[in-house]
Amino acid sequence: xxxxIVAESLSVGYGLRVVARELSFRAQAGRMLALVGPxxxxxxxxxxxxxxxLPPLGGSVSVDGRDPFxxxxxxxxxxxxxxxxxxHASWPFTAGEVVSAGxxxxxxxxxxxxxxxxxxxxxxxxxxxxxxLADRRIDELSGGELRRVFIARAIAQRAPFMLLxxxxxxxxxxxxxxxxxxxxxxxxxxxxxxxxxxxxxxxRRYAGDAxxxxxxxxxxxxxxxxxxxxxxxxxAFGASFVLGHHDEYGHFALPVSDTREDERPR
Length: 266
What we know:
The protein has helices at 43-50, 73-79, 95-100, 104-107, 115-127, 143-157, 173-188, 200-206, 224-227, 230-237, and strands at residues 5-14, 17-27, 32-36, 58-63, 80-83, 161-165, 192-196, 209-213, 219-223, 240-246, 250-256. By secondary structure, it is of the alpha/beta class. Strand 8 (209-213) and strand 9 (219-223) form a beta hairpin.
């Protein structure tokens, strides 16, 4: 299969330790794929493998029909953008400088940014609402502000494939919705968006496809409305869920306690 990001019997992990095994899925242009599962189930490991930061332990992954591990850094950056779960602010760069680094594949390390590169950075910052932070040092930003700056950097790359590890982490509820709206618009314009997410309701509301990571390192892939089922969620998280429907926002999933009301501590 060519086009998109395609995993075939892909096993991922660290060293000899397999975290998730035999994963087969496809992330297509114009669709959002949500990776859903508990802590330690392999979501981050899978994203790092697709981003070529970890070698696969079995099977294969391809990006637009090509092996990402055989690409040069600039070629890979022109195809893939990646936002890790933890954004570090170790150097006193400004937010604008960080976002501009997203144009590395176009400018090279020592190239001069064009008007188009600058416009891409400014547009990306406006897209996620951080243009007012352009001259602020990133080591002075809050966790949520820093997260949005790194997302803006990924958007500035204008890569056709975007990988995000818990992009809504550190964001308040309003900012989470704003961000998911942004990612949904990017997908609607042709970007293939893959994100790990703990909020099952956001996944059900926004994602077209989902990969649910289950105990034992296995997973189920398919349309989000089908695979984010009560059975799969309860198997994945080891908790009970109540599924319902909202007239405006569609289906929702609510984790609940197995303890009866009269048995709960007061």
